Amino acid sequence: MGTTAETTTAAGTRPGPGLGLTWSLRGRGPEDVPVLGDPGPPGGHPAGPATGRGVRVCVVDSGVERDHPLVGEPAGSWVVVKDAESGEITVEPTTTGDTCGHGTACAGIIRRTAPECEIHSVRVLGERFSGTGDILMAGLRWAVEQRFDVVNLSLSTTRTRFAQELHSLADSAYFARTVIVASAHNTPVESFPWRFASVISVGSHQEDDPDLHLYNPDPPVEFFGPGQNVSVPWLGGRTIRTTGNSFATPYVAGLCARILSEHPRMTAFQLKNALYLSAANVRHEPGPSHPRPSTAAGDTGDDRDDSEN
Amino acid sequence: MTAMTPRTESAPVPAPAPSDAPRNELLQSVVDVARAIFGAAASSVLLLDEEADELVFRAVSGEGQEFLVGRRFPAGRGIAGWVATSGEPMVVDDLAADPSFDRSLAESTAYVPNSLMAAPLISDARVLGVLEVLDASPQARSSVRELDLLAMFARQAAAALRVITPDPLAAASAGRALEGAQREDALRLLGSLEQVLRGTG
């Protein structure tokens, strides 16, 4: 970040996005802009002890149930509210939980993947229909301003009028080390912000392995995680099964939290590289491949099929 | 058929105006085909009425077909509300034991789904509503492939809906169009206005 003006936010003392930017190095040399780097985990795989401890994850979704045994009490619960008369949009603390179950499911996947991370919730559903985009924008903007380490965004907007603003917001988050992990569409729908390179976009693969992620050599969607028939916490302290890209996304968000807990100085592009390096389909040396069994390819149990993947 | 509370003061379903016939036929075809594709107990189309902030059952095939059409639900809640908001298709299974599932609706339909597939109806960057499939056959749910199929079919349905109803606001708020008694009131008002203008009122 170069020279920075430290400002206090609800998240701590890291500078807010856009503050303290370095525009040039006129009159300054390398010693004037020292960076203490972190190479990240070898091979991109989070180390065993990496539990997400100390990492702040924000779930922008339908809320999170307050006391689900598989999630725990969220460290913070907020709601985006739009005044029906004035149209003013604010983000306020809330004691209500989840209006749907989806946000609790996402939080549960993050908790399962990074057990000791700190989970915050911003609810963008439940006051009024919020699919028009402005409430989603406000929720995401607030999360970026709060400098969360990871933002899970299992949603998108098709409203092109928000595309430019979302793009700027995603870039601000990227430079401020808030990594946005966003669900992709499973059909060629133009929606945002998952289409932007500054976020980590996630779709669902068809494998049964709950700890597997893949890199897509032909984006727009960059990574695939487990999103098929996933067991998740739901309303009323229960557990159900779900399928969808939106459930693969929190797995990758949880992976990011795990990596960051051991390597807190990693940047967003380093995180993306760690996910790339640790993807099950990325080989690091030329030579014969050793295919893993694939559910999508029809392999079951010991029945290995080397014809694909 | 969602985990939401139906608006109890829902008005009876107005008789469809003749101009709505092609749209109703299209929507009924969509839910009939969706139900057949997935071997499901029911399928429904809910369209978004942004002005009223509600989702409206516009077509139902199978369970609930006789009385669900026209019912309205708050658009900011439940699985359908989330799918309309997030734009992401999803499947939830094991719903029958979900205590949050609205029992009054379930009892009124004498049917509690165990599984719900839902995909947004998106056309030309607008979410028009949600296509739901209830209790698909076990072979046709819970996999990404089936969810992809539902999402693609929902896109086709939304495109057809958009073609047949060019005005997106009209498509999204069809329930607010002048129908039944409202239409008669409007015609009476126009008649009165005409009389006033002619100086005969």
From TrEMBL, chain A:
Q: Which GO terms describe its cellular component?
A: extracellular space
CDD domains given in the database record: Peptidases_S8_8
Provide the Peptidase S8/S53 domain boundaries.
52-285
Give GO terms: molecular function aspect only: serine-type endopeptidase activity
A GO BP entry is: proteolysis
Q: Which family does the entry's similarity section mention?
A: Belongs to the peptidase S8 family.
**Name recorded for this polypeptide:** Peptidase S8/S53 domain-containing protein
